[in-house]
Amino acid sequence: MSELTEARGTVAPLLAVFTDFDGTLVEIAETPDAVEVPSELADGLDQAARDFDNAFAVITGREVADIDRFLSPLHLPVAGAHGAQRRRADGTMLEVDAEISAAADDIAAAVAPLLERHPELILEPKDGAVALHYRQAPELEQECLLIMREAVAEHLDFVLVPGKMVIEARPAGYDKGSALRAFMQEEPFLGRTPIFIGDDRTDEDAFRVAQEMGGIGIKLGPGETVARMRIADVASVHALLRGLAEIARRHELPAAPEDENDEAPLLRDATAH
Ligand SMILES: O=P(O)(O)OC[C@H]1O[C@H](O[C@H]2O[C@H](CO)[C@@H](O)[C@H](O)[C@H]2O)[C@H](O)[C@@H](O)[C@@H]1O
């Protein structure tokens, strides 16, 4: 079924593992700040990163600083604001271009008046991107879309991307696929086989690029996707990362269980129904 299964008993390829954050490493919460990070998550990711020779990064719509706060004290390589910010594996921070930063501030300022009328909306200004959340008022989706469209019309170098109960503006030249590609051109990712795990529409660019580079996209949950594999939920992502890390640690895939039916597979073919 999966390439992992097919490859059993052979030497595992060296993997570069990339994951999304919200909805993939942690469950979706009612508000961006209400995310609950399991106490053992940072330690688990730290161990996985070491097992992957540090070829492990988070690619997210959030700011890099947000990921650091949630995963403290861990400082992973992270692409934030959909790739507009990026911290390399060597710790170098590639800051957001000043013009992009200023444009994102403008967009946030143009949208802010809507929140005076609808305080249940959440405006999340970021360095290099803007998110307008309507999870507490789903009936306002169209109004949110309209005001974001108007705000972005003044900044043609920005595009709108829909997410989970959110409309985001991000700079046109950046997406999660370009972020993955940029990591893959650098050590320690260079020459490895990329795996990207994500749950949302903005993750599709990264699935596509990972697969173009000979790797695998793994989509969490239902919905159309270009990813070749699917995984059920956040707990399964944690289990998969533990499993891949163990494989990397041993440099060899584990022997197949005596009866494969004893274990439900974590991954399934995304095209199978
Ligand atoms: O790329 P990701 O790591 O998946 O980040 C995407 C956006 O995630 C956050 O918003 C989403 O998660 C919130 C917390 O669970 C939820 O309340 C919201 O409805 C979701 O859209 C984050 O706030 C955004 O900045 C990210 O771009």
Question: What is the H/E order?
Answer: HEHEHEEEHEEHEEHEHEEHE
Spell out which ligands are present: ligand L263DTV3
Task: Classify the fold: give the CATH topology of the largest domain.
Answer: Rossmann fold
Overall average residue pLDDT: 92
Strand order of the largest sheet: 5-4-3-2-1-10-11-12-13
Assigned CATH architecture of the largest domain = 3-Layer(aba) Sandwich
Report the helical percentage.
25-40%
Describe this structure in words.
It is an enzyme of class 3 (hydrolase). This is Trehalose 6-phosphate phosphatase. Its cofactor is Mg(2+). Removes the phosphate from trehalose 6-phosphate to produce free trehalose. Keywords: Hydrolase, Magnesium, Metal-binding. Helix 2 runs parallel beside helix 8 and helix 4 packs antiparallel against helix 5. The chain has a nine-stranded mixed sheet with strand order 5-4-3-2-1-10-11-12-13, sandwiched between helices. A four-stranded antiparallel sheet has the order 6-7-9-8, covered by helices on one side. It is globular, with a radius of gyration of 19 Å. The chain is built from eight helices and 13 strands. It is of the alpha/beta class. 33% of the residues lie in helices and 21% in strands. It folds into two domains: 186 residues, Rossmann fold; 74 residues, Trehalose-6-phosphate phosphatase related protein, domain 2 (Alpha-Beta Plaits), CATH 3.30.70.1020. The structure holds the ligand O=P(O)(O)OC[C@H]1O[C@H](O[C@H]2O[C@H](CO)[C@@H](O)[C@H](O)[C@H]2O)[C@H](O)[C@@H](O)[C@@H]1O. The site of the ligand O=P(O)(O)OC[C@H]1O[C@H](O[C@H]2O[C@H](CO)[C@@H](O)[C@H](O)[C@H]2O)[C@H](O)[C@@H](O)[C@@H]1O has 24 residues, from strand 7 and strand 9.
